[in-house]
């Protein structure tokens, strides 16, 4: 078995006095697809935000592709180049076109020539099926289109790992599918990914492992068949009955 | 597509000036009374103003002609007589083509720079070169130009020089101060906060006084720094403190998601600020920024207290002439008009910048 690409050991985090992550142990193999679910405030977003250090953990160890996350800016930036992130609110840069959003980091972080960066970005925009919107500004795109641009933007750095923080929660229902389709395709291509979502159908379809978090702890982690078919923990059962009811 | 009305669209509003006036000026009986009353007052004012400014005004001749008019009309003869001194101050009379050329070059450069397609790094460099060239032109001592000490510079070129350099160099300093104030490093933050609060708490006059009177006392013997330069630095440092707070307002208005997205892309602090945050933040604060610029432009008049004669100082000296002392008002109106042209250009142009290319705004 190969070494894990992401390893969290006994990670703790507090927001002021609030203990948001409690003794998290998690190791992710390259190519593994993990879906994280749980009630709001359970720490699931905070957990994946610790992996590219948008949040700092206060105890424990996080190692991403061989680099331990500490105060060292150089290490943090190295990790961030390997980890792409997609946010709930898209967070596209409104003063740049879709294409410029995608080429910004390749040009300024990787030092790619503008031409090459644009060609690569167009390939990714085609992959998320909106090459024709390349020269529009985010304000001119629908939510689903914006989120697909955001995915293309993250992919442009050739990340080894993709983090999705509730990528469909801010979307109108009719746009959820177009975004999920893109993520499914990405999952099938073998990308390592961690996805926080409430889309249980999606979890069933693509996840290698589903993780249920509550009150800052990983309560249950299992392959989807077992997770949905025979959850072991009472809290998991309760949560599932609530999200699957409607 | 044709521009006809959709069959079930809203009915078109009546158009034309009469319909407009009905809707906006005479829509109720009290609005009609207000409109008529206001029109009457405006007409009265205009009649008096036109009479004084144009009809009864004395355009040419000596001060006797103006005195003969007994204040019925404006004495524009003052401007005809003294405009060279008002515009160029104590700059040697025969050499005044040099400041005139400098102002013309400056206005031409502004005109070119408003053209968005020319915006590039070269344009910024061009402005530095231009100002070096203008300073050289005014200062002389090269290419056979007679040297003219900065003590003699005055009028419009001095106003432009002090304010444009003041604005141009205070903005980058302000950006650094604003970033410093939001920095996570306590020392940098303390320095920025300390600087901003200290300078904002002191009037510009006292900074100029310190620059001109106190500062030389701290210099080692034999070392002198040009008075104009000291005033210039004072203006830059002063306006940077105000501007820094304006910029900080812009930085705070950018949603945290923008910072996070830039972080997640691994841009690093400076690239994040330069490529993502500042372009949005600065555009957001164009109105208060222009406010500051206009204030700086007008504040340069205060250099009169350290013996530099800007536009306003020059007009004051010009009307000190006993022959013309009665017509100070006309002199002030003249420079007010010049100030107004520059300031209204700034506010007009800034509004165009705000709108920018329409597509940049979210709908």
List keywords for this structure.
heterodimer; A: 246 residues; alpha/beta; 6-stranded mixed beta sheet; 9 helices; 24% strand; B: 363 residues; mainly alpha; MetI-like fold; 2 domains; 15 helices; disordered C terminus
SSE map:
The complex is a heterodimer of chains A (246) and B (363).
Chain A: E1 6-15, E2 18-28, E3 33-37, H1 44-51, E4 59-64, E5 67-68, H2 73-82, E6 83-86, H3 98-108, H4 114-127, H5 143-155, E7 161-165, H6 173-188, E8 192-196, H7 200-206, E9 209-214, E10 217-222, H8 224-229, H9 234-245
Parallel strand pairs in A: 3-8, 3-9, 6-7, 7-8
Antiparallel strand pairs in A: 1-2, 1-4, 4-5, 9-10
Chain B: H1 17-24, H2 29-55, H3 63-68, H4 77-88, H5 97-113, H6 121-139, H7 155-181, H8 186-200, H9 204-218, H10 227-253, H11 256-264, H12 269-284, H13 286-299, E1 309-310, H14 311-318, H15 328-355
């Amino acid at each position: 078995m190969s070494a894990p690409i992401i390893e969290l050991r006994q990670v703790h985090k507090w927001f002021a006095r609030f203990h948001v992550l409690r003794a998290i142990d998690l190791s992710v193999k390259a190519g593994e697809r993990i879906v994280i679910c749980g009630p709001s405030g359970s720490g699931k977003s905070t957990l994946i935000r610790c992996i590219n250090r948008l949040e700092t953990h206060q105890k424990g160890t996080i190692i991403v592709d061989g680099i331990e996350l500490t105060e060292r800016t150089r290490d943090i930036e190295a990790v961030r180049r390997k980890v792409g992130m997609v946010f709930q609110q898209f967070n596209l840069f409104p003063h740049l076109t879709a294409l410029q959003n995608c080429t910004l980091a390749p040009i300024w972080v990787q030092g790619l020539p503008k031409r090459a960066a644009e060609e690569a970005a167009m390939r990714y925009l085609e992959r998320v099926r909106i090459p024709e919107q390349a020269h529009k500004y985010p304000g001119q795109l629908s939510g689903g289109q914006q989120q697909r641009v955001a995915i293309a933007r993250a992919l442009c750095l050739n990340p080894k790992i993709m983090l999705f923080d509730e990528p469909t929660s801010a979307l109108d229902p009719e746009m959820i599918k177009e975004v999920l389709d893109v993520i499914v395709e990405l999952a099938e291509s073998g990308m390592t990914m961690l996805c926080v979502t409430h889309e249980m159908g999606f979890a069933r379809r693509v996840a290698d492992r589903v993780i249920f978090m509550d009150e800052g702890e990983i309560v249950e982690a299992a392959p989807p068949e077992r997770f949905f078919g025979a959850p072991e923990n009472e809290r998991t059962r309760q949560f599932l009955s609530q999200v699957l009811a409607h | 597509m044709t521009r006809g009305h959709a069959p079930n669209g809203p009915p078109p509003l009546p158009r034309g000036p009469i319909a407009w006036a009905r809707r906006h000026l005479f829509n109720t009986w009290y609005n009609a009374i207000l409109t008529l009353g206001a029109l009457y007052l405006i007409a009265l004012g205009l009649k008096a103003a036109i009479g004084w400014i144009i009809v009864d005004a004395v355009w040419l001749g000596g001060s006797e002609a103006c005195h003969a008019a007994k204040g019925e009309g404006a004495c524009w003869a003052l401007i005809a007589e003294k405009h060279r001194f008002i515009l160029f101050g104590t700059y040697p009379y025969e050499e005044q083509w040099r400041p005139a050329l400098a102002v013309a070059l400056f206005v031409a450069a502004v005109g070119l720079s408003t053209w968005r397609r020319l915006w590039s790094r070269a344009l910024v460099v061009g402005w530095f070169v231009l100002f070096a060239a203008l300073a050289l032109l005014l200062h002389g001592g090269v290419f056979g130009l007679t040297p003219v000490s900065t003590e003699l510079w005055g009028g419009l070129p001095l106003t432009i020089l002090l304010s444009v350099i003041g604005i141009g160099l205070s903005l980058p300093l302000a950006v650094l101060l604003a970033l410093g104030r939001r920095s996570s490093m306590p020392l940098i933050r303390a320095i920025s906060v300390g600087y901003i609060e200290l300078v904002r708490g002191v009037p510009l006059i006292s900074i100029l006084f310190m620059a001109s009177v106190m500062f030389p006392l701290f210099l080692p013997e034999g070392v002198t720094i040009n008075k104009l330069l000291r005033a210039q630095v004072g203006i830059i440092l002063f306006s940077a403190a105000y501007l820094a707070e304006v910029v900080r307002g812009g930085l705070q208005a950018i949603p945290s998601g923008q910072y996070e997205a830039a972080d997640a892309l691994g841009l690093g602090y400076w690239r994040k600020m330069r490529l993502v945050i500042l372009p949005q933040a600065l555009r957001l604060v164009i109105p208060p920024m222009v406010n500051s610029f206009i204030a700086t432009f007008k504040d340069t008049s205060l250099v009169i207290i350290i013996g530099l004669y800007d536009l306003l100082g020059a007009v004051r000296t010009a009307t000190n002439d006993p022959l013309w002392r009665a017509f100070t008002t006309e002199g002030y109106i003249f420079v007010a008009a010049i100030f107004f042209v520059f300031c209204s250009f700034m506010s007009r142009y800034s509004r165009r910048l705000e709108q920018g290319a329409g597509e940049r705004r979210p709908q």
